[in-house]
């Protein structure tokens, strides 16, 4: 099995990458501005909805019910998609998904593809695989195109080029489109992108798309977007290949009603997405003549085993948790080392990777709960983060170096001290004696080892000379209580 989540296997740990991102003033300014705009728009649109909390609860229940019976819905989807003229392929991991896509493209004689809305294709690293097979992929989502032309990585799951401002985009377009006369005016940049893409839409015969939802009842697939490029990609080519994670399944067409109200408001602060494209099989004289769906597992079925971990798969990739997260808003998405960034990335990437990579991500959170409050499907991200931190500790304790790590020794010591009153009081006495080495007034400064990470940036009050218990004992003696 070659389960792969973007480039997480080679990404630096979050604290290292975050330190680097924090030094980039321009990036932080861009991320702050963009997330502020989207957050404010979302808040307005959500406030208009008297039944918002009911919608969230419904979405949560639909997702939970679907995932509890996912095997059944996947088979139902395959049956209905096939009956409508589509072909369903099953990919256990990244390599299988890429191999299926490449063999289909070669079978139809293509050497280039147009692509839209395919985070899953970034997850399996499809573009490098296509390049290696001599096939040129063209991203058509404006933000994805900016990322591709800039030889960059996406930094947000809805707005992948959110870290770029228009001056940077102008420079990328000037260089890659050979348009030295371009200015940074948004209308001019949009017109340049339109012209650049139109040629590809009309020329390329094979489209590769992702999907926001796959509907078991009808075998249909759905993409929502704002630019119309998705509509072009799923209607103009002769062959359409849709790569979709198995967790995108919903049972019935009616369920879309709930998600199509929640998703646009949460993602971009729109009441409705300008383009909602649904396609079901093939129809003579209308749209692609061949339609293939690749259902991707890539580590997802492992998450189904635990109710707590399974909740991660409820995600509809709206990005609201990223915009609300105080950590993401400072570092941007690249620091997460994964195409899935922010709070959802912090729980999804390590789990898909069987906790082998991205192990620092569950700690990339202040646990403030802002992500849970905005999540349209009510994923309890803080609880899952704590659960994953527990898994990291348990895994570490299986190795000698993990057992001897500062953190583990400190926690084991704390467990012993907190285990009995006598030991706790003895630890307090020891602490009072030891702290004199680091005490300046009523504060502790420059603590050694791991604790130094705290005193380097924050205040830490010294232990008082007398504990509350001692004070109580002394006073009750005096007053005869
Ligand atoms: S976890 Fe919730 S808020 Fe975050 S992207 Fe997924 S659905 Fe949106």
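Sequence proposed for the structure above (481 residues):
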């Amino acid at each position: 099995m070659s389960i792969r989540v973007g480039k997480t296997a080679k990404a630096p740990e979050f604290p290292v990458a975050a330190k680097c991102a924090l030094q980039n003033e321009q990036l932080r300014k861009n991320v702050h501005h963009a997330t502020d705009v989207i957050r404010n728009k979302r808040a307005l649109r959500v406030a208009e909805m008297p039944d918002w909390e009911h919608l969230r609860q419904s979405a949560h229940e639909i997702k939970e019910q679907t995932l509890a019976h996912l095997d059944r819905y996947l088979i139902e989807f395959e049956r209905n998609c096939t009956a409508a003229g589509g072909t369903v392929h099953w990919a256990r991991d990244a390599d299988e998904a890429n191999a299926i896509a490449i063999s289909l493209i070669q079978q139809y004689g293509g050497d280039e593809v147009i692509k839209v809305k395919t985070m899953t294709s970034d997850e399996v690293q499809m573009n490098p695989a296509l390049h290696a097979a001599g096939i040129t992929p063209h991203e058509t989502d404006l933000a994805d195109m900016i990322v591709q032309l800039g030889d960059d990585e996406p930094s947000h799951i809805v707005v992948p080029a959110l870290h770029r401002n228009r001056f940077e985009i102008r420079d990328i377009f000037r260089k890659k489109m050979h348009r030295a006369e371009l200015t940074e005016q948004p209308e001019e940049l949009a017109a340049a992108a339109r012209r650049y893409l139109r040629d590809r839409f009309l020329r390329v015969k094979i489209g590769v798309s992702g999907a926001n939802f796959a509907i078991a009842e009808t075998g249909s697939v759905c993409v929502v977007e704002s630019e119309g490029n998705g509509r072009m990609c799923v209607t103009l080519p002769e062959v359409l290949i849709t790569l979709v994670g198995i967790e995108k399944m919903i049972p019935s067409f009616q369920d879309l009603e709930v998600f199509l109200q929640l998703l646009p408001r949460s993602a971009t602060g729109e009441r409705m997405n300008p383009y909602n494209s649904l396609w079901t099989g093939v129809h003579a004289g209308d749209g692609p003549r061949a339609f293939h769906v690749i259902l991707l597992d890539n580590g997802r079925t492992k998450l189904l085993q635990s109710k707590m971990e399974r909740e991660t798969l409820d995600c509809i990739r709206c990005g609201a948790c990223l915009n609300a997260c105080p950590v993401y808003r400072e570092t941007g998405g690249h620091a997460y080392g994964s195409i899935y960034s922010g709070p959802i990335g912090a729980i999804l990437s390590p789990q898909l990777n069987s906790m082998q990579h991205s192990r620092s991500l569950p700690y990339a959170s202040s646990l403030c709960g802002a992500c849970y409050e905005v999540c349209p499907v009510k994923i309890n991200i803080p609880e899952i983060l704590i659960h994953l931190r527990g898994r990291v500790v348990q895994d570490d304790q299986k190795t000698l170096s993990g057992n001897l790590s500062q953190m583990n020794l400190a926690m084991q010591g704390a467990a012993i001290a907190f285990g009995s009153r006598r030991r706790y009081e003895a630890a307090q006495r020891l602490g009072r004696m030891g702290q004199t080495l680091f005490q300046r007034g009523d504060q502790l400064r420059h603590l050694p080892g791991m604790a130094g990470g705290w005193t380097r940036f924050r205040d830490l009050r010294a232990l008082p000379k007398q504990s509350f218990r001692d004070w109580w004992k002394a006073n009750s003696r005096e007053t005869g209580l």
